[in-house]
Amino acid sequence: MDITRSSPAPLRVVAVPPEPEPADLTALSEPADLTGLSEPAELAALSQPAHDRPSTAAVPTAVPEERRRSRPRDLLALVRPGQWVKNLAVVPLALLDTHPWGAADLLRTGWAILGFTLASAVVYVVNDLADRERDRLHPVKRHRPIASGRVSPASATVLTGLLALSLTGWAVAGPAWQWWPTALYLALSLAYSQGLKHVPLVDAFIVATGFVLRLLQGALLIGGRLSEWLALCVFSLCLMLSLGKRRHEMTAAGRAHRPALRGYTLAFLDHLVVLVAVLTAVSYVLYLRDDAALATGASFVILLSAPCAVFGLARYLQLLLVEEGGGNPVHVLFRDRATLVNAGLWAVLVALALLTHPSG
């Protein structure tokens, strides 16, 4: 009897309705759930172990309403307003001009700064578009608007077009021969973004050259001569900062993020940064002797600015080599208290030297 009663049991098992497919498997079968992961790097990130995945900020999961509210802010972040301070490199030669200033001088200086700001904004957007895959692998750059998905490539392309149109309007508003440093900077920077940034040493030298072009633009504004020693000083200073940034990237993210880093080692960068720092200090002192506006002023006062310059270089090397910082020179300038105080003292000494110079 027991065997007879237990024989229908398989029939009862077959009669049980099939268990519904789990909701999570259904969700994975829907292609719509992967629309936010249009880039291969993001799909690869999800396949990594949990402890190796980037933070969720690197994967665009925000709801459309939040994206629309943050888009103006994200577009502004895309052109990096925090980096616009670099374009003030146009100003130093104009400030060293001891002739009385008028409204036209202020307008020309502001116009030159605007041109470099527009040109650099174009370069920033183009660079972020080209590097969005690689930036997702960087612990800091993965939060940039395009890499994080807050700004789509289409929106970034439209922004690039608008900036290019604005830059064209800026150029045609004045004599073309006067703005050739800005045009050369734009061409060189775009070539950098499209491939030269992957060539070791060449990448850092191009960045430093951009600041010398800013100085040249300032010299054209005032119709003055650009001192060779000042050009060398600015070039070597910016080269040191550029090499320091690459060293910081090697220690923070390894060599995978930037192909050019394969041509560097930490020991090589350490020696090179110190060598360029020495060149910066020597060329600065020689510039003080060469520039008439400074040499004929209070020579003792301007001589005191040399220790300030050396201290600033030493402090940066300390942050870079000892404290493993210095990856962002702009942050160092505005956030490091010792650097701020030293820069203020240096500016006061230079201003005093200029005030003692008789205007021509």
Give a written overview of the molecule.
- One of its GO terms (cellular component) is membrane.
- GO terms for molecular function: transferase activity, transferring alkyl or aryl (other than methyl) groups.
- Its main location: membrane.
- The protein is mostly helical and 360 residues long.
- The model is unreliable at 1-70 (pLDDT under 50).
- 66% of the residues lie in helices and 0% in strands.
- The termini are far apart.
- The protein has 2 domains: 65-225, Tetracycline Repressor, domain 2; 227-360.
| CATH class bucket of the largest domain | Mainly Alpha
Termini separation: 124 Å
> Biggest sheet, open or closed, and with what strands and sense?
none
Residue share in helix: 55-70%
Mean pLDDT: 77
Categorize the overall geometry.
Answer: globular
Low-confidence region ranges: 1-70
CATH superfamily of the largest domain, by name, is UbiA prenyltransferase
Q: How many separate structural domains? A: 2
Give Rg in angstroms. 28 Å
* CATH architecture grouping of the largest domain: Orthogonal Bundle
- The fraction of residues assigned to DSSP E strands is under 5%
- Structural category: mainly alpha
Number-wise, the strands total 0
Fold-level CATH name of the largest domain: Tetracycline Repressor, domain 2
The string of secondary-structure elements, in order, is HHHHHHHHHHHHHHHHH
Separate helix tally: 17
